[in-house]
Design a protein that fits this description.
The chain is of the alpha+beta class and 485 residues long. The protein has helices at residues 2-25, 31-41, 43-64, 157-223, 229-264, 287-297, 299-322, 341-344, 367-433, 439-474, and strands spanning 69-75, 79-87, 93-113, 118-131, 136-152, 325-338, 349-359, 476-477, 482-483. One of its GO terms (molecular function) is porin activity.
Length: 485
């Protein structure tokens, strides 16, 4: 009779082993493939790429401010028909009809000078006046003139923008890399959500098969008087639980699959089968190395310098706007007038203009001083905030490195626990079939085996989550010892 039990038990074990080979050995999608798909085709990746492109064109706009600007403007035509007020010699007023065209064109080339905040320019102007009532046409123009405009004792935005805008551009480039690593982290989480759902379904289906097989063995033993009715009822209850677990696991699997497909932009409607990932190759981690790479690569690290410069710029602007403001403009060239256009270029007359525009605050009731003091206080506050953020920055890296190393050790322990729990369950099955173990002890081994398998997947999830988080915080690949781009 024991041979019959052992035959049933062997069939049960083969069933379990066959399920295990099918569940854990089939070829499917890997974690790295899911991450790569998310980085290349997800909506989040496209949003990050669009943001990067926007920042690029904003930077190109900034660079264009320091290039020569060639512009053409004018009024073509400038026709007017109206009545104007004309004072007569006797002091009376008459309104005379006027019909004229006063068109003009102006071609100018200008270049900003960042060091001084001024600009140098060259211009050529042409004006035509047509008096239709008197049938008269006149031309006025400046064949060529050069000039220079220089603000004096004023805030120089060009100088500060030249310091800050390149930092903002570099910050946006690194922010893009961080966005991709954030996508990798999210994809990793969704991968393990789906993997856990698959594992739960696999466990539920295997448990259903095994429970059904054990119930058959128990019924044979019950017919021979070797087990109690209570054990049969307990196994029947366990069978119902496993059937319910299969239904719940299928629902969770469908939800997890849809969530991951939606995030990574996968249009395939087929079933996804995931491979259980393995830990990366052994990596040598150094907290000092991680902190150094983070300061060298992260957008936040660039932002520390940018925020300080912006605070300095605010102080400079407050001082420049509160004192004596003056603008010096000087122009030298040629001008002429005539009945035709060629006459403008025959013996043009010299033209010179010099203008100094002043704006001097006399009484402002302390407004200028208050603005300057406010900007200085804000600068000090920014320095304190940056110092605190730098400390938090270092602490976050240090904590993540420590967490990663701890999770790596925990993963090794869960692998061993999973192996022990599986072996213990197999032994419990054999002992129960042979009548050396109660149904309660078999249920305990049953539960421990399932929990150990889930704990292993959770440990893998925590490990890989910490791995991708460390990449995001440092923008450095510790496997290949290279910066992320």
């Amino acid at each position: 009779m024991k041979k019959r039990y052992l035959s049933a038990f062997i069939a049960l074990i083969l069933s379990f082993g066959g399920q295990g080979g099918k569940l854990w050995g089939q070829v499917g999608v890997t974690l790295s493939e899911v991450v790569e798909m998310a980085r290349n085709q997800s909506i989040s990746a496209r949003q990050a790429a669009t943001t990067k492109e926007t920042k690029y064109w904003e930077y190109r706009t900034f660079l264009s401010n320091y290039k020569p600007q060639l512009t053409l403007n004018g009024n073509l035509p400038a026709f007017s028909r109206s009545f104007i007020e004309v004072r007569q010699p006797d002091g009376t007023i008459q309104f005379q009809p006027v019909r004229n065209n006063n068109s003009s064109l102006n071609l100018s080339l200008s270049q900003s000078i960042a060091a001084t905040g001024g600009s140098i320019y060259a211009t050529s102007q042409l004006q035509r006046f047509d008096d239709f009532d008197r049938k008269n046409t006149l031309y006025n123009g400046t064949p060529f003139a050069v000039g220079y405009m220089q603000p004096l004792l004023r805030f120089n935005s060009f100088k500060w923008d030249k310091k800050i805008e390149p930092l903002k551009f570099n910050e946006s480039q690194q922010a893009y890399v961080e966005s991709l690593e954030q996508i990798s982290l999210q994809a990793s989480g969704l991968f393990f959500d789906l993997l856990l759902a698959q594992v739960n379904l696999q466990i539920a289906e295997t448990n259903l098969t095994n429970t059904d097989a054990i119930l058959k063995v128990a019924k044979e033993k019950f017919e021979l008087g070797k087990t109690s009715r209570n054990e049969i009822l307990q196994l029947q209850l366990e069978l119902l639980k496993t059937q319910k677990a299969v239904g719940v696991s299928k629902r969770d699997l469908e939800i997890a699959s849809l969530n991951m497909k939606s995030f990574i932009g996968l249009q395939n409607e087929g079933k996804l089968v995931l491979n259980t990932p393995r830990p990366p190759i052994a990596m040598v981690l150094s907290t000092e190395k991680a902190i150094a790479e983070a300061f060298a690569n992260r957008a936040d690290a660039i932002g520390f310098s940018r925020r300080k410069l912006e605070a300095e710029r605010a102080v400079s602007k407050a001082k420049g706007d509160n004192g004596l403001n003056a603008t010096l403009t000087a122009t030298m060239g040629f001008s002429n007038r005539g009945q035709t256009v060629p006459e403008l270029y025959r013996k043009p007359q010299d033209q010179q203009t010099v203008q100094l525009q002043l704006d001097i605050p006399i009484l402002d009731w302390g407004r200028s001083k208050s603005r300057t003091k406010t900007a200085e206080a804000q600068r000090q506050l920014t320095q304190y905030a940056v110092e605190q953020d730098q400390q938090n920055f270092r602490q976050e890296i240090y904590t993540q490195v420590s967490l990663f190393e701890m999770l790596r050790d925990q993963l090794a322990l869960t692998v061993e626990a999973d192996s022990i729990a599986s072996e213990k369950y197999k032994i419990a099955q054999e002992r129960y079939v042979l009548g050396n173990l109660s149904i309660t002890d078999l249920s305990i081994a049953f539960t421990e085996k399932d929990q150990a398998k889930r704990d292993y997947i959770y440990a893998l999830r925590d490990y890989w989550g910490a791995y991708y988080k460390l990449r995001q915080l440092t923008l450095y690949d510790f496997e290949t010892n290279s910066k992320l781009k």
